[in-house]
Design goal:
CATH architecture of chain A: Roll
Shape of chain A: globular
Structural class of chain B: alpha/beta
CATH class of chain A: Mainly Beta
Distance between the termini of chain A: 15 Å
Number of domains of chain B: 2
Strand order of the largest sheet of chain B: 2-3-1-4-5-7
Oligomer: heterodimer
Bound molecules: guanosine-5'-diphosphate
Number of helices of chain A: 2
Structural class of chain A: alpha+beta
Radius of gyration of chain B: 27 Å
Strand content of chain A: 35-45%
Order of helices and strands of chain A: EHEEEHE
CATH topology of chain A: SH3 type barrels
Strand content of chain B: 5-15%
Number of strands of chain B: 9
Largest sheet of chain B: 6 strands, mixed
């Protein structure tokens, strides 16, 4: 499922992600756990939390990242 | 900036040790740099403060040398401009050591960066040099319940690791001590056997983290809760509105208070009479006296305008801006407005340079360097140069319109918002290229450190006084000379079809158009005390709002975007100022004629 479609407050694991160098450098990798903190209206960004840092990802990026829910 | 800083160029270092300062963005590198060198660089709690690099000299217990602040980057893959610069510097520099600043609250990613530096330095530097680590922000880490075994970490990295709290000067002497010791002992001091693939290095980082770091699960502090809340549409948007209203209240209300209660009386009852007595010792009448002390005298308006009318707003604006920057609130605002900003083709993060523009356009235009695409840079810089009034201009508007009616003041700002938005829409159509989607790290919400904050405000206000006072006094002197010699009347006659016919302003307003070239607020201030009607005030304010960017801004535009674009922007904004001002005046007078 794409990250953008995930519900708020949900913990998930990254399954695949586009090859954007900055994403990679920020520490987004396959298998990394992230939690969704908030989603902005009007097609705005998703805020995710990884470790204890927060990142805002534009919708276009979030739609290209697939995740699965962490059980 | 002090004379021993050297932005943008470096020569080989002949004496002393050269140290490169590196790190991810937002780890406190600027603070470390300014504490070690005494050179004042602006630091801010958002990504990309250090876009160009700065060099400063350090001295420590009989040793000396220089320190180069390498742009903060997330990695060293050379995938962005800043990364290319960083890698280039490692390659080219004849450094004696590298200090890497790590953020203790975010060790995993920072360690990966550390591994990249150590790996890269052994590969590309002619002679690998010692790498010393500053484990910064341990105070914040502790508050978040993160414990790091520093000794063990140093063993893994095979290099010194010094815990620091840069803002409070903790650990920095130890850092310098360790650096000098490493340089002098001539040992390489760094881990050299690195796995070649990134994947394997991430595995190594994971292994190290598990052994050196313990995270105790704590209840989030109220600041953390607030930090999260500000990023949700609700209550984030109401909070943003409240923050903005509060900021406005502090700047406008506080500025008015400062002006009326302290600065105006000081200028009129103490400073000007004192200067008057002084001048009277030498001249008592004639042109020279009038130029100096007359109604528009250099030493009367030249002091009253910048100090009493403008300075209070500039000061308070920088208090508010510096607080918002250092607390980490601005990027959150960027997240909230991203949806709207996308409609005009730029991402939300650009709100940072735009807000800076309300202080002064120059740092705002330089701040656009952090934007990833040229299109975004051009758009934001043009929007700021076109429609964002700087703090000095705001002070002038308040002086001009605030007394007459607050409604007028508000409508001028509404006009400005609408114009910025429309300019954005238009520019988006005409400037080729695209903007990148938002990908932004949101720093923790912090209580800004008082000392750092005060220092920053001091630098900015000092900068304003030096930048604004001289042109202002000279501009006013020039104006007084024009008025005294009668030249002003002649220019006024020449421009009268424009000023009186098209804009409906009295001939004296010509002065504003002349002085406005020097500084934007000088386009407004000559309109004071002319007894203008509401319509005239509004027209004058609109013209001044969009009028040509001041000389210093034009210089920066040309330097950043080239002469063609810079001049185009200046001509474009001036034309639209005159056209819009005239249209407003003509429409209002037509409507009132019909109604009458
Ligand atoms: N509490 C705390 N704050 C710090 C420390 N070091 C830096 N800061 C703050 O962190 C923010 C980012 O610092 P800055 O030097 O701009 O980061 P840079 O992007 O790496 O240059 C600023 O608001 C600093 O005041 C520290 O050790 N402790």
């Amino acid at each position: 499922m794409s990250l953008y479609k995930m519900k708020k407050k949900c913990n998930c694991v990254i399954e695949s992600l586009p090859s954007v160098p900055l994403l990679d450098a920020m520490g987004f990798r396959k298998g990394q756990c992230i939690a969704i903190k908030s989603k902005q209206p009007f097609g705005g960004p998703v805020v995710v939390c990884m470790g204890n840092r927060s990142f805002a990802l534009a919708r276009e990026l979030a739609e290209q990242i697939t995740v699965k829910e962490d059980s | 900036m002090k004379c021993h800083t050297n932005q943008g160029e470096f020569k080989p270092n002949h004496s002393g040790y050269r140290i490169l300062l590196m790190g991810n963005p937002n780890v406190g590198k600027s603070v470390v740099f300014s504490k070690l060198t005494g050179v004042e660089v602006e630091s801010a709690n958002y990504t990309g403060t250090t876009v160009s690099f700065t060099k400063g000299d350090w001295q420590f217990r009989g040793h000396h040398g220089d320190l180069i602040d390498v742009p903060g980057t997330y990695s060293l893959d050379a995938s962005s401009q800043a990364e290319k610069v960083a890698v280039d510097m490692m390659k080219r520099e004849t450094a004696d050591a590298i200090i890497v600043v790590l953020d203790a609250t975010n060790l995993e990613r920072n360690l990966f960066f550390a591994s990249q530096i150590q790996h890269l330095s052994t590969e590309i530097m002619k002679n690998p040099v010692p790498v010393i680590f500053s484990l910064n922000m341990i105070d914040v880490a502790e508050r978040q319940g993160i414990q790091i075994d520093v000794e063990l970490l140093a063993k893994f990295l095979e290099a010194p690791v010094i815990p620091t709290v840069a803002v409070r000067n903790i650990g920095l002497s130890e850092l310098m001590e360790a650096s000098i010791k490493s340089i002098e002992s001539n040992e390489i001091h760094q881990k050299e056997d690195w796995p070649d693939t990134e994947e394997d290095r991430w595995v190594w980082v994971g292994k190290v983290i598990r052994q050196v770091q313990q995270v105790e699960h704590r209840h989030p502090t109220w600041l953390e809760k607030l930090g999260d809340a500000t990023m949700r549409p609700f209550p984030g948007i109401p909070i943003a509105i409240m923050v903005m209203a509060l900021a406005l209240g502090i700047v406008v209300g506080g500025g008015k208070g400062l002006r009326a209660l302290i600065l105006l009386p000081l200028v009129h009852q103490v400073i000007v009479p004192l200067l008057d007595q002084l001048v009277r010792l030498f001249v008592t009448e004639g042109i020279l006296y009038n130029v100096l002390m007359g109604e528009y005298g250099m030493l009367v308006k030249g002091i009253e305008w910048p100090f009493a009318l403008i300075l209070p707003y500039v000061l308070l604006f920088y208090v508010v801006l510096s607080f918002m920057e250092d607390s980490g609130y601005l990027p959150r605002l960027g997240v909230l407005v991203d949806g709207v900003f996308r409609k005009i083709g730029i991402q939300g993060g650009n709100i940072v340079p735009m807000i800076m523009g309300y202080g002064c356009a120059i740092p705002a235009i330089l701040g656009t360097r952090a934007a990833t695409t040229q299109k975004e840079r051009l758009m934001v810089a043009s929007m700021v140069a076109f429609g964002v009034p700087c703090a000095a201009q705001t002070g002038a508007f308040i002086a001009l319109l605030g007394e007459h009616s607050v409604l007028l003041l508000i409508s001028v700002y509404l006009v400005s918002f609408v114009a910025i938005f429309l300019a954005g829409l238009t520019l988006d159509r005409f400037i080729p290229g695209k903007s990148d989607p938002m990908l932004l790290e949101i720093p923790n919400l912090l209580m800004p450190d008082r000392q750092t904050l005060l220092k920053k405000i001091r630098i900015r206000v000092k900068h304003f006084i030096m930048e604004a006072e001289v042109p202002m006094v000279l501009g006013v002197g020039f104006a007084a000379l024009l008025a005294e010699t009668g030249a002003l009347v002649q220019v006024g006659v020449f421009l009268s079809p424009l000023v009186e016919g098209w804009l409906g302003l009295p001939p004296e307003a010509t002065l504003g158009l002349i002085l406005g070239i020097i500084r934007r607020e000088l386009a407004v201030l000559p309109l004071l005390e002319l007894g203008l009607t509401g319509t005239q005030l509004f027209t004058g304010a609109v013209v001044a709002l969009f009028y040509m960017p001041c000389l210093a801004v034009l210089g920066v535009l040309i330097k950043e975007f080239g002469a063609k674009i810079g001049v185009l922007m200046a001509v474009g904004t001036t034309m639209s100022a005159l056209i819009l001002g005239g249209l407003f005046f003509q429409t209002i007078s037509m409507v009132s004629r019909i109604l009458a």
